[in-house]
Every structure is written in C-alpha cells, then in structure tokens.
Amino acid sequence: MAKKASKKASKKVTKKVTKKTTKKVTKKVSKNSNGSLKTTLIELIRKTSVELPDDVQKVILDALHREEKNTTAKYAMDIIQANIELAKNKSQPLCQDTGTVLFFVAHPKNFDQLAFTKTVHDAVKASTIKGYLRQNSVNSLTGENEGTNVGKGHPSIHFHQHKKNTVEVRLMLKGGGCENVGAQYSLPHTELGAGRDLEGVRKVILDAIHKAQGKGCGPGVLGVCIGGDRGMGYMESKEQLLRSLDDQNSNPVLDQLEKDIVTTANTLGIGPMGFGGKTTLLGCKISDLNRLPASFFVSISYMCWAYRRKGIVIDEKKHTIKKWIY
Ligand code: SF4
Questions:
Q1: Among 31, 170, 184, 196, which is most buried by a count of CB atoms within 10 Å?
Q2: Nearest C-alpha to atom 4 of ligand 1 is from which residue?
Q3: With 0-12 CB in 10 A as exposed, 13-18 as middle and 19+ as buried, what is 73?
Q4: Does 28 score more than 70 pLDDT?
Q5: CA distances from 316 to 33, 137, 171, 188, 321 (A)
C-alpha cells in the first residue's frame, strides 16, 4: 500500500517537473525578440539553399555512375554534379530559382507560433538581402514584387505539435519548374483506364511522370498521397518529400509500390532533363489518407534534382543549432 502511494506521488512530481520544463523550453525558443534564433534560421536557409542533403547527393552520384559514357544523359548528370559542388564551395544558391520557402515546425505544447512566425519572416527577409534566396515572391493580382520574399502565404509555415520536448524545424525550397508538373488525378480516370485501386494509382503516377518529361528539371523525386481531399492530398504529398530517400515505407504495400514506380520509371528512357538515359526518377515516397466514398484523389508533388531540404533541432537555451536532421 505504502509502495503504491509513493509510486503515485513520484509520478505526480515527475509530471509536474516535465510540465514546468516543457513550458520553460517553449517559452524560450519561441521568444521572437531573440537575435540568435533569427541567426539560426538564416543559417538553416543558407545551408538549404546551397547544399543538398547527403541522401540526395548519394542517389545523384549513383545516377551519375549509372549513365553510359559519351551520352547526353551522362553529360547532363556531370553538369548537375559540377553545379552541386560549385554551389557548396562558393556558398551560393544551387539554382537561380530558390523556390517556394516551406517551413515545417514540430514543437511541444505551449509554443508561441505567432512569435516564431515573426522571427521566420525576419530571417527570410535577411536571407533575401544576403542572396541566399532570390527575390521570388510576387503579388498574384498585381505582379508586384516587394523583394522581401514575405507576403500573403509566403513563406509557407506549417506547425505540428509533437510529444517531444524539442523544437524541430525542417525547410524545403521547392522550385517553380518542378511545382508546375505536380498533378492531381480523380479516379476513376476513364482515358487512362485507371480504376479506384492500386493498379489505377500506379497508372496515374506513371502518367504524371510521362507528362513531366523534359520539364521540371529531372531526374526528380515524387511525393504521392493516395486519398484525402484535394487540399490535404497535395499537402501530404509535399510532406512525403521530407522523408529521407533511403528510408523504408512502414506499409509493405506502399513500400512495394514506391520501389516499383522508381524501377518502372527508370526503364522509360526519359532520363536526366528528358535527354534519354537510365535515370528518370531518383525516388518515390507514397502515403495514404482516408477519403470520402465519393472521391478518390491521387496527388503528386514533383521535386527536381535541386532537392533542397534540411532540418535542425534547436537548442532550447542558446537558440543555436543543436543537431542537423538528414
Ligand atoms: S525546377 Fe528545380 S532545378 Fe529547375 S529551375 Fe526550378 S528550382 Fe531550378
């Protein structure tokens, strides 16, 4: 009986202590007036803009070695690799299109999202002045470019509360060319003979790859969502691009489909930049969401070879980079 009571009391105490620590951490990290948080985010933006993550660099090198000598495909891959090395060494953007700036922030409870958003805006403005980001965001009605990359809906910031006691920030820079070849299909699709099943899903994904040839700066990576509504489907397909290229889908059916799509795409002969060759896709990541019985969407986000994504865990006390993700 006494043992039980002391166990209960100790549980209460630890709960209280964790609650207190979480509050302290979130309050500290979300304080927008803090200069070091801004500096930390600027470094995240710089590194994302100039350097590919290791998993992407690895598949690009694999593709480079796969292409046959004296072919246009090999030449294209050589240029891509030279571009990657030059950008890293000179600390300059990998591509002139620094793309849509997408932040994904995972945080504990009691986190001040408004304060964090303000610091992100400041960091994006500063990174634009420094040249890590091109002046890329324009008013859709007037075409006006304020030159700051901050405006309605840009940067795009997505917050998710998680159970951990850390703030993790993932950043993706998604170019316009590859965004343009994203696609959403509503099944059944009579023209393609695609029904509401996995074979139908496979058909529309391969159709999207076929239609993207010569555009979107391949070889690329696909993020796919099966189901959801139109908005959630596209968002989930983009979030699939946050996965590491060497990870394995926990759903064996989707894992099989991912591998099948990459293998099949690489036999189509589309190749780097659509010049022919053995590498059309570098990867494919698929997830599913519940849907209404009346709808069956397949949403596809296409990422070009300039697959810029990085992530950091923020040190709760100093607001510096505690750890790089990827
Ligand atoms: S699609 Fe990618 S590589 Fe091509 S111009 Fe846009 S950002 Fe650059």
A1: 170
A2: 217
A3: buried
A4: no
A5: 15, 31, 19, 49, 9
DSSP structure class, residue 315: P
For residues 257 and 171, give the distance between their C-alpha atoms in angstroms, rounded to a whole number. 27
Helix or strand or coil: residue 156?
strand
Measuring from atom 7 of ligand 1, which residue has the nearest CA?
A: 175
Q: Which two tokens stand for residue 103?
A: 């932040």
For residue 177, which atom of ligand 1 is closest to its CA? 1
Angle at alpha carbon of residue 143, lines to 137 and 149, rounded to 5°: 15
Which range has the worst mean pLDDT, 13-17, 59-63, 260-264? Answer: 13-17
Can you tell me which atom of ligand 1 is nearest the CA of 173? 7
Tokens of 228: 């959801």
Residues 6+ apart with CB under 8 A from 114: none
Q: Provide the 3-class DSSP secondary structure of residue 171.
A: strand
| pLDDT score recorded for residue 29 | 54
Residue that is written with structure tokens 């008013």 in the block = 139
Tokens of 247: 């990870």
Contact status, residue 240 vs residue 285, Cβ threshold 8 Å = yes
* Chain mean position to CA 282: 15
Mean pLDDT for 195-204 is 98
Pairing of the two strands 297-303 and 220-227: antiparallel
The whole-angstrom separation of Cα 98 and Cα 18 is 40
Q: What beta strand segments (E) does 193-267 contain?
A: 220-227
Ligand 1 site residues (CB inside 6 A) read: 95, 97, 99, 175-178, 216-217, 304, 306
- Range 186-194 average pLDDT: 98
Inter-helix orientation angle 72-90/54-66, to 10°: 150
The amino acid at 255: D
Tell me the pLDDT of the chain averaged across its residues: 92
